[in-house]
Amino acid sequence: MLGSEYNWLFTHSRSPNGLPRIRVKNESLLTLAIAFLCLLAVALHAEPAPAELPGMDGIIEGVALQPETGATFFSDVHNRCIWTRTGDGPLHRFSSDSDGLLGVFALKIDPTGRTLWASSAALPEMKGYTAADRGRALLVAYDLPTRALRRTYALPADGRAHVPGDFLLAPDGTIYATDSLAPVIWRLAPGADRLDAWLEQAQFKSLQGIALSADERSLYVADYPTGIWRIEIATRTAAPLPAPAGFNLRGVDGLYAVPGGLIGVQNGLNPPRIIRLDLDATGGLSGARVLPAGTELTDLSLGQVVGRHFAFLSHSGWDLFSNPAATPAPHSVLLHQVPLEK
Description:
By secondary structure, the chain is mainly β.
């Protein structure tokens, strides 16, 4: 039986055989009602509007979200610092000038929620850069409750340029960091006081994002010019993953593990995009697709998986520093969220 709330659209009665008979009272109103319900369904499933960080004059490369506290942290290559804010409140500096940071790249919060890790390297785009800074690179750990710099780990000074642009925190406490300028994956073992060159391979051209397999036996690493590599941790053997037919895997920056696959920030293509890569039972690629992520995908940088969503940055500011000595006007950085399963 129809409720009284629908009587403006339908009449109801019973046929001679006792079955209910429903007639439309007003077809125009029914059409409008259906259109309204369709729009409501679209609205309920629409992507949330990106969060805006207005007035930024730097290069916002990395982000770390802490849903339990509502805090979000942003790395700044140009201003050599880490920013933070709670909810949609104002931005504040988290790091101090006395911390000795270089340009700040990736950010990760450890599982305890007490340590914020950051990778940092000298680039001409950072404030105060000098030729003497070339090759300097760091991994740093902050105590989140006190905001104190707990420890700094410098990459070895070997005469080469280094940019540890991304890293991962393995469940056993090991940190693996990729180097965008030297063909090296660095490792900080639990309790160690220095980084070691865990794997160096001439075939690596510009290492970027890094993710751990679900069984914790393999690393997936994005190499910007060549695609995605799979590395067996036990043997340190690396092999490129064949791309699915018709799908380009070059130009991937951030790379993140999700159930059944990987999420990639592919900012080396035009237009840039967010991609979902499916893995089969052997750890190989079984499929790839582009995730619908809105129309504001310009100058993408890094992100983070948060529950069933992937949060990532656009309008990061790199495009404004094609001349490293430039002083661009303040711009708005956007923080997006896209469902993992769309």
